[in-house]
Specification:
With 188 residues, this protein is an alpha+beta fold. The protein has two domains: 3-95 and 172-187, no CATH class; 98-165. Helices cover 72% and strands 10% of the residues. Helix 3 (98-111) crosses helix 4. The chain is elongated, with a radius of gyration of 25 Å.
């Protein structure tokens, strides 16, 4: 599965889920805005009755505070959606057919220049990692399965350490390149 195919799938899957989550966040923001409007109207009555500068300053602060809170809620929801999109991408990569996973891992093994080292496969991926390693004509020692990653493997050699876990690849390579593009796609 090519990186562009993974990217496209991430974008498609994320759009539908993001629309629902963003709609909920916007509704919540609208409720806050409505409450704020009520607060502002009440403050306006007092301002008209008391005609005090102190009340005018209070109204401005209230509007600013409410608008800041509304924006903060929307930004938090957008961040949550983006984090979920990338977490889902890792999950989908980890559950891809063994042939595709093996093909991707074969590419990882071709990047390793060391002749000796230990490969720590992700949980439940030892067979796929081992098969890809053999196809790459590498004979590294297999270490224990890593429970804290969803797919791929970690390599520790004499001169090189490389994290080819799907978690790491998404976090360090895919997310920095695509986060802004996905955010524009989802939220504009």
């Amino acid at each position: 599965m090519a990186l562009s195919d993974i990217t496209q799938k991430i974008l498609e899957d994320a759009k539908s889920e993001a629309e629902s989550i963003v709609l909920d966040a916007k509704n919540e923001a609208e409720e806050i805005k409505a409450q704020a409007q009520n607060t502002i109207e009440e403050n306006n009555k007092r301002i008209e009755e008391e005609a005090s500068k102190k009340e005018l300053i209070m109204e401005r602060k209230t509007k600013t505070l409410i608008e800041t809170e509304r924006k903060s809620i929307i930004l938090d929801e957008k961040r949550r959606v983006l984090d979920k999109v990338f977490a889902d991408a890792v999950g989908k990569m980890a559950s891809m057919p063994k042939e595709k996973a093996e093909e991707i891992m074969l590419g990882f093994f071709t990047k390793i220049q060391d002749d000796e080292g230990i490969v720590y496969p992700a949980k439940n991926q030892a067979a796929v990692v081992s098969s890809a390693m053999k196809k790459a004509n590498k004979s590294f020692t297999m270490g224990e399965e890593k429970q804290d990653v969803q797919g791929g493997f970690v390599f520790i050699g004499k001169t090189t350490e490389a994290d080819f876990s799907f978690d790491s690849i998404v976090a360090k390579e895919i997310k920095p390149k695509l986060e802004l593009e996905i955010a524009k796609f989802l939220f504009e």
